Amino acid sequence: FISYSEAINRIQKDQIDGCYMAFSSDDGFKNNLDAARVLEEFGTTACFFLNSKTVGMTNHEEIKAFCQQQLHFPPVEFMTWSEVNDLKRRGHEIGSHTSGHFDVGRMAITDFVHDLKSTKKKIEMETGTIEHFAFPYGRWNNFSAEALAATTAAGFTSCATAERGCHLPGTYSENPMIFRDHVLAHWPSHHMDYFFEQNVRRALKNEPQPIL
Fold it and tell me: Where in the sequence is the domain holding 50, given as residue range(s)?
C-alpha cells in the first residue's frame, strides 16, 4: 500500500516497478472516518475527495435533497471541516470533487472552470493546499478533454475517473487520467481479486482505453 500522492507520482514519472495499491473515497461521508481508522490499522492512508458544499451540512432536508438529486440514494451524514482537518493531520489527503457533485459532462466549460477554481479555493482555505481532483460519476461521458485541460490549468496535478483499470509503465502519457476501481467494504476478497486480475489482463493485452 502506498499513499495516493505517491501512486500519482509513480504513474506520472513512469516509476512503476512493482504491484502497488492506493486508496481514495469520494463525497466526504462521515463514515469515511471509519474507513480511515481501518486503513491506519494497516499502515496506510487515503485521499478523500470532497464536495465543498456538503462539508458540515447538517440540515436534514438539505441533506435528503442533495443525496436524492445528486447521489441517487438515501440521506447520509457528511463530515465537518474539523473532521476533515483531523484526517489530514493523521496523514490522509484531501482532494476536490466539485462543489456540488456536478456532472461535468453536462456543464458549460465556463461554469465548470468557475466551480473548479472556487471549490479549490474553499477547500484550501479550510484545509491547506490540495493537488488532486476526481470528477463526479467518473465515467468518460461525465468529463471532456476541455475539462481535463481546465483542471491542469487550475493547478491540479491529477484527475481521477471511476473507470476500472490499472497503470503500467509507459501508459500515462497516452491517456493522462487516473483509473480507480470501485469496491465495497463487505465484498469478499476474491470478488475484488477478480476485478484486479481483469484490469491487469486487459492492460497486458494492450486493449485500447477510451481517450477524451
Answer: 4-202
pLDDT score of 206: 75
Extract the C-alpha cell encoding 49: 475527495
C-alpha dihedral over 11, 27, 193, 179, to 10 degrees?
A: -30
- What is the predicted pLDDT for the residue at 8? 97
Domain assignment present for residue 73? The answer is yes
Q: What are phi and psi of 41, to 5 degrees?
A: -60, -25
Query: In this structure, is residue 207 part of a structural domain?
Result: no
Task: Give domain status of residue 143, yes or no.
Answer: yes
**Residue 60 domain-assigned?**
yes
CATH code for position 54: 3.20.20.370
What per-residue confidence (pLDDT) applies to 210? 63
User: How many domains does the chain fold into?
Assistant: 1
Residue 147 exposure: Cα atoms within 13 Å on the Cβ side: 28
pTM (predicted TM-score): 0.95
Spans of the chain, pLDDT less than 70: 207-212
Grid coordinates of 10: 509513480
What Rg value do the Cα atoms of the chain yield, rounded?
17
For residue 151, give the C-alpha cell.
483542471
Q: How far apart are CA 136 and CA 160, in angstroms?
A: 9
Q: What are the pLDDT digits (tens) for 61-81?
A: 999 999 999 999 999 999 999
- For residue 155, the tally of other CB atoms under 10 A from its CB is 14
